[in-house]
Structure formats: structure tokens, C-alpha cells
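Changelog note: in this version the structure field was regenerated for every chain. One regenerated record is shown below for reference.
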Amino acid sequence: MRKSRFLAGVGIVAAGLLGLTACNSGTPGAAPGASEGSSDQLWEVASDVSLDGSPTYDRMVAADKVVVGVKEDQPGLGFKDPLTDERGGFDVEISQWIAASLGFDADQIEYKTIPSANREQELVNGNIDYYVGTYSITDKRKESIDFAGPYLITGQGLLVAADDDSINGPDDLAGKIVCSVTGSTPLQRIRDEYSPGDTVEYDTYTQCLEQLRAGSVDAVTTDQAILAGYVAQEPDTFKIAGETFSEERYGVGLPKGDTVLKDHINTLFNDGGDVWTALFDKNLAPAGIEGEQPTADE
């Protein structure tokens, strides 16, 4: 069983990005250079599944579908192709792997794009069965929901314009305007632990990127795994500034108290190292990211 560790430092990420082009012709949501191929070749849809004591699973069976909360503007992680409406990325395929382990085909998955600020409430209200979308495990969130995982570990970083050498880390943010999304851990950390000149927030990172392109903000902050995907798509426009300055443990958001479903997903992750590695290599490694599968121990 593998031990948790950070994704590679920014120096390794930047080196990996140098050889990439901005053209993304592979799997939707994958970084440039990702190989094509159907992820469902990595697993079979389970049959005769029994999760006694899981009300969430019972709801899925009754509805004959799985409702999954995801992101759609994070290349390599959770992305929706605006031309084809196809979804792809590491998080999306993790959600498909989970659904298959529960006995559901890909065409039985209903995806809902949910902003960061609304994730807990959507789970509490029963509007989604689980959430897979760069969802950091925190004690505050665990007051209202549960997590399975972690399934990926990264750290917070900064994205700046490619020609900006004035920011090399969070200590250089005095007088600078920083953008992130409402309800995110990175936004709260940058406000609580550092001293930016100002912060602005939007529902999506796409809106932050638009502000950075326009010069209305000086930096965008979120997790390095997300930022690397944006750099891979537009290496002449953006770059990552400095090293990571936190540890973010991504988990699968679940309704509070569904221990049976949580244990099922954790066992799937811990026993499925080959699948995890294949999904990582397909979706994240092409952006220059390195990492090892963490132990799911929530």
C-alpha cells in the first residue's frame, strides 16, 4: 500500500510543461499530450452488489442512476468540452470508477456541476449521491458531511501572468489582488494566513482566469494540480509562481453518516492501485505532475 506524499514541486511541474503545446486534442479534460482511450476498459461494472446499511446506495438503486457532483472548468481534473459536452479528467473518471463498483454503467451517471460554495448543502439536501471535484478534506466540512479518501494529495499555489516576475510565492502578495472561488479552502487560507492587497471571488476559476488575462487581478490561487492544467493549456499566457504552501487532501464528499458507502469506496481505492495509476498517468502526468496514490484512511 502506498504512502501519501505531495505532488511534485513547481520546478518539476514547470519542466514538464515546457514540452507541451497549448493544443488539447486528446481526451476531453486531459492535459495536452494525454493519450486517448476509454477508461471503462480499466474496470468492469460490478454485479450482485450489496451495501446493506447504505441509504445513499439504496437511493441510487431506486432511481436506477447515480447523481454525481463535479467541476467542469478544471483541465485534467474535471472538464466539460464546450463543443461536444463530453466530460473528462481524473476526478470525473474517479467518479465513473466508483459508480462501476456500485453496479452502474457510465450511461447511468447524471453529472451536476456544482460551485464550491454549494457542495456541502447539495449533499445535505440529498441532491447528489457523492461529490468528486478537488474537494479538500477539512474538519469544518466534516461537521456536515463525510469523506472517503483521500485519493489525491496536492498543495496550494499561485498562478500569474507568464511575464510577471514580481510574485514568487504568497509572501510577495502585499499590494496585489488575488482571485479564487467562493467557498474554497485556498481563498480562506490566503485571507487568513497571508497579506494580499485585496481578494476577489467568483463562482468558477474560469472567471478568475478571465480577470488575470485582463490584468484586473495579479494572481489566481488554488491547488497546484488545478493550476498545472491551466498552464498546460496556455503556457504562453500563465505560469505557476513559486512552491506550494499547504497540503490539500482530496476526498469524495458523501452524505453524513453513510459509513457503509465510505468504507466501500476506501476499499476500492486501496485495492485498486493499478487503476489509480492508469488514471493518473492518463490525466495528470502529461501536465508534468508527479505523485503517488495516498492511503484512503478517512
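Spot check on this record: The radius of gyration is 18 Å. The longest strand covers residues 145-154.
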